[in-house]
Each structure stands twice: as structure tokens, then as C-alpha cells.
Design a protein that fits this description.
Purple Acid Phosphatase, chain A, domain 2, 20% strand, six-stranded mixed β-sheet, alpha/beta, seven-stranded parallel β-sheet, TIM Barrel
Amino acid sequence: MKIKIAAIADTHFDPCTGNPQRQGEIADLLLERTVHRLNEFIKPDVTLILGDLLDKGEAPGARERFQRMRRIVDEIQSPTIVIPGNHDGDVRAFYEVFTEPEEFTDVKGVRFVHFLDPEEPGYNARRTPHDLERMAGARAGFDGPIVALQHVPIFPPGASECPWHYTNAEEVISAMRAHGYCLAVSGHYHEGIDFLSEDGVSFTAAPALCRPPYVFLTITLSTGSECQPVVTRHTLRMPQQLGLVDCHVHTQFAYCSHDMDMERALALAPDFGLAGLAFTEHSGQLYFGADAYWRSDWLAEGTDDAQESDRRIDAYIAAAREANCPTECIGLEADCDAHGRPVLDGRDRGSVGFLIGAIHQTPELQEPAPDGGRVADEFMALLERFLASGIRALAHPFRVFRHAGLEPPPALFGPTVRLLRKNDVAAEINFHANEPPPEFIRQCIESGVRLTFGSDAHSLCLIGDFAPHLELVRACGFDGDLSDILLDPRP
């Protein structure tokens, strides 16, 4: 049996850090981004948060910042163990906000034992006689693997360049060997320690999440007699040399926005390794009020049924310009009406620099028990007209089926690829509430249909998080230059 462990350390949240080595001012977003990645794609069995959540745990406003981080931690879908670091201040105040772990925590046959070791001069630490006894006590009556958790790294003296250590490291490691601990997981050292092993005991330290490229670890640990860990680094910043552009980003004008803000989104793009982004607000939400939009009042006749009093597209375009978004990247995600037309007033077409289209609804899907065959027929009939309407990319091509509880019909992949190619329209890879069919993406690549990467971000933390997109393209057999297959909306 194996257990998958996620390890996060050193977020150093501080809205006014002023430290170029730590981007603590976006630490809450980085933690949110990590949590999304964990919940949606990695799905660990247990998540470890290894201290220094704040940069100044005793500064004014620290409790509110701890509470902000606690709300994000509460979204983690696995069991979670949270310990403080030397920057987090008073341990009692820390655990007034976070849940203090029990003496030890058992997950899938592995015992996790946490230590709150006192700090020594020079940002080092020391394990007390009491906690050395606890190391022995954790073994009593338990024959599975034991993992030690602490903030300051433990490793064999001289085995790492890390300048911080335990003043009684040899004693601690001796106790680990004596009582059958197989792994120590730490934080504190911002470079991180990927993996060290000596005499059957392994050591690792998670890098600082607040330091580019914003790294966290997963550790896959066998629970058998070997207990050999495999450590993997995950980066939140996309590789800058790829020049990736997020072609599907929402704004504060979305009825389903969480915390979007155009100016901040543009500022975050380089932090997340992007070469650019395009704002693509739901067109129907800019012409219809919220209730009318969610009722799909736009479906029957598009903007012909819109009320002038609900019109917000002018304010949207003005806000994008005020945020200094390049004209070619001020776009729309145009809904498709029942006639295969973009939900877009003709007088606004010239103001849109980048138009993507989305089939969010069909007449058959409004029935109480939609028929899958009729949905497929409607989809293809709409698609043929929609792709000829001037859109440049098709957003989440088959998500409408998944939202209806239907599997995307593989028989539609080939005809859709041919229509995309005929109309020179790109296909979007989009994981937002969606699972892109790999076979469809493979056919697009083989047929020369361009792709776009879209986060479909309704939260700032999700802009340009393309780790699954890159993995999907690789899984489809493409290992060349991404610029050969990706559409870039910029000139």
C-alpha cells in the first residue's frame, strides 16, 4: 500500500512584506492555488503545513491574517496537520486559530508525530528530553511507518547545504533509527531539501511557497517493509520560457466572480509565469441581469431579448482599458443562442479584440429529462453555424455534455475537429469544472487545429494554472515547441 503526502511550508503571508525574496503579499493566493491543485488533481491522503504561515506572527493584524489562512486550509479535502514556525509567534495564539494536532495522527497505516521544538540562536532548534521520550512513545504498540514533522530541518550533519539545523541533530536521528522512524519532513529552509537518505532513514524539507517559482512537495511513501519515499516538486509558476498566454480569464463583471479584479489580474500574470492574458467575460452576463442570465433567457433570441437597462458591456470595456489591458486582449466569452449565433450586439463587435465562443446550453438540455442523442444532434447543428460566426476559439468544447451528466460522445470528436479546421477556429483546453477528452485533443493536434490554454479563472489564484494543460498535451504525445500548436491572441 502507498500513501500520498502533500507538504507545504513557509508561506510568510504579509500584505506589506517589502522583501524581494518573499512574495508574502500574495501568499494567500499561492496557498489557494496550491489547495485547488491538491483537491482537483493531486488528491493527497494527508496534507502537512510546516510552519511560517505568516511573516510576522506577533505584528498587529496577525490574528486576522491567521484566520484568512485558516479559511483556505479548511478547503483542503484531505486530513491536514498544521504546525507553527519561528515566524508565527506565540504557539498558544497560533492554536487559538488553527486546530492543534493530537499527540500523533494515523493515516492509512502511517503515524505522523509533530514536534514544536524550541528555537536556538541562529534560527536553529533543539529537541527536548521530553520530546525525545515522545519519539519512543509513538512506537509503543504500533508497527507501521512513523514520520516526524517539524519546522526546522533535520538531516545528517554535513549532508546538506542548509545552514540551519538541530543542535542535537545526532541525538534526534539516533532516536529516529532506534524507534523505526522512516522519514522526517520539515520546512524553514527556503531552498528546500528534495531527498536525503542514510541507514534507512529519509529526510526532506519543503521549499518556501512564497519564493518563486512557488514550490510544494508530494511524497509517495510505501507502507510496506521498504518504506522508500519518492519526492516530487510541484511549481505554481509556469515555466516563463514557454511564453504561455491565458486566453480565458473572467473579471469583476462576472456574476460568478470570486475576487476578480482586472488590474490585479494583469499584475499577477508575470508572477504566475505568463506572457499575457485575455479577459473574456461572459457576453450574456453583460447584456442580461443575473436572474435572466441563469434562466438562460438569452438562449432563444440572443441579445434581441436583452433589456437596455441591463447592458454592462460598455462599463466592462472601459474598465479593461482603464486597467491598461491591450486592446487585442479585451475579449468576450460569447454564449451561443439557439440559432448558433454569438450572444453579441452587432454594435459592440468592433470593440472586442478577442472573441471566444461557448455552447453553455441547448434547447433540449432545458427539458426535464434531456435525450442524449438529441443533445448531440443539437450540439453539432449549433456548432456548424457558431464556428462560422467569427469566433477565434471554442471554449471547453464538450463541457455542456458533462454539465448535463452526459459523457461527451466520441463520435462527435472527428466532425468537430473538421469544423474547427474548416473555420480556422482553435479548440480550448480548459479544466474548469471540466475534463477535456484526451482523444479529442490528440485529434486536434494531429489535424493541425490550433489550441488555446484557458484557466476560465473566476478567482485570482487560478489565473494561468496550466500544470494539467501541459500534462495533457504531453500525454497526447506532443513534445515539441508549444508555439507550433497554440494560438496567441496578441499580434
